[in-house]
Amino acid sequence: MADWRKKLAKASLADIMKAAFVHRILVPAFNVAYLPMVSAIVEALRRTETFALLEVSRPDITRFGAESFRAVKEAFDRFGDLSLSRLHQDHVPVIDEEGQLVDWSSLIDEALRLGYHSVMIDGSRLPLEENVRVTREVVSRAHPLGVCVEAELGAVLGHESGPLPPYEEIFASGKGFTDPEDAGRFVQETGVDWLSVAIGNIHGAISGVAKDQKKVEARLNIEHLKKIVERTGIPLVLHGGSGIRKEYVLEAIRHGITKINVGTEIRQAYEQALRTHGKIEEAQKAVTEKVEELIVTYYEIQGSARKLAEYV
Ligand code: 13P
């Protein structure tokens, strides 16, 4: 194994993400909606020598084919490559997209027991104080194990089953955008490692006919992002990565967005190829190609793993 790969394989995820933030190198996070996507995503990372996270959320398990947090961890142990990737537990909500209370505590503990490298507690539907309290609790469990914690502040809409307000209305009003002052305070009080923010990004649909349709092309309020990054100083995360206009994405990376979550686009590539060809291998090929295309022509981060290895 090349020296840079040995170095990155040994580095902690916290250090890798800090280096990525300082040097403005994007670490994309690809959602595993079906188990065979694990090896397909890793193959694209190998071909392009790019560092990324593989991540899995509750909807990936309950609505699609990721099966369980354990099954994804087992697939990652088999096909993953620590010099190019780590495994993240995406979106453990305290209140879910249907307004139901979730047993977040057990889900987080499950990922910690399984050996996930990072977890996300999503208290964004709670009042600020409650979000702080729950996030601190997760940080106190994860950090002693060397596990990073992501939290969310603001409203990244899109996963709800009801109709959304028109996109232009959300963007123009800034309704639900992360408040920069709150964000500064939240980071101070929780000790969280990365913060997911709302600056115009929305999630792709996960239910109804909309889940199979092309997502709205979102924009980002970069001025708002600048205010958040000034007050927080930690890696910021953009959820709803599918279908954001490229120029906004590149500008956001220059201003502190370090992790972008991509779900809909690669899930649809998998499902579409499976419908057309009826073979899992073809669906995997479609995912590898899509991930490669995103890395090379959209984010323009091919070779990021070598660069990160220099800085950790
Ligand atoms: P998209 O499905 O819109 O790419 O969003 C993915 C995501 O944010 C998962 O947390």
From TrEMBL:
**GO aspect biological process, one term:** carbohydrate metabolic process
User: Which Gene Ontology MF annotations are present?
Assistant: aldehyde-lyase activity; zinc ion binding
Query: Which residues are recorded as binding Zn(2+) 1?
Result: 91, 203, 239
- Cofactor(s) needed for function: Zn(2+)
Q: Which positions does UniProt annotate for Zn(2+) 2 binding?
A: 122, 152
UniProt: dihydroxyacetone phosphate binding residues: 204, 240-242, 261-264
> Per UniProt, which keywords does this protein have?
Membrane, Metal-binding, Transmembrane, Transmembrane helix, Zinc
Co-factor note (free text): Binds 2 Zn(2+) ions per subunit. One is catalytic and the other provides a structural contribution.
Q: According to the lineage, what is the superkingdom?
A: Bacteria
Keyword Cytoplasm found: no
* Catalytic residues (positions): 90
| Transmembrane annotation, as ranges | 21-42
Family matches, as Pfam families? F_bP_aldolase
Under InterPro entries, the record lists: Aldolase_TIM, Class_II_FBP_aldolase, FBA_II
PANTHER family named in the record: D-TAGATOSE-1,6-BISPHOSPHATE ALDOLASE, D-TAGATOSE-1,6-BISPHOSPHATE ALDOLASE SUBUNIT GATY-RELATED
The protein, known as: Class II fructose-bisphosphate aldolase
Q: Which organism is it from?
A: Candidatus Caldatribacterium saccharofermentans
Upper classification of the organism: Bacteria, Pseudomonadati, Atribacterota, Atribacteria, Atribacterales
